[in-house]
Write a structure and sequence with these properties.
About 30% of the residues lie in helices and about 35% in strands.
Length: about 100
């Protein structure tokens, strides 16, 4: 999967700020990390017929992020949330990098 654009809305920026994450960090993980990982994780309740995806990636500063989003157009995503990876996600990501 390729992400070319993230459509940021004020409510989503405010939401990820609660996790102490800035949009530029999500963009670094989504666009710049050559080891990023994608997975379809659920069907969307708010967007019928769409799926929720999870991206695991790292920022330039080395922060490990889990980013959840919905694909709304070819390569364009609507962000749901982002947070630091949990322990199992970090292990999965680090194993993938080896």
């Amino acid at each position: 999967m390729k992400i070319a654009s993230i459509k940021w809305y004020r409510d989503r920026i405010e939401h990820i700020a609660k996790h102490k994450i800035e949009p530029y960090e999500v963009e670094q993980a989504a666009f710049d990390d050559p080891y990023k990982m994608f997975k379809k994780v659920a069907t969307s309740d708010g967007f019928p017929g769409k799926y929720v995806y999870r991206l695991l990636g790292r920022t330039e500063a080395g922060r490990h992020l889990a980013f959840f989003y919905i694909l709304i157009e070819a390569e364009v995503v609507y962000p749901l949330t982002a947070r630091n990876m949990n322990d199992s996600e970090r292990r999965l990501y680090n194993a993938h990098r080896r």
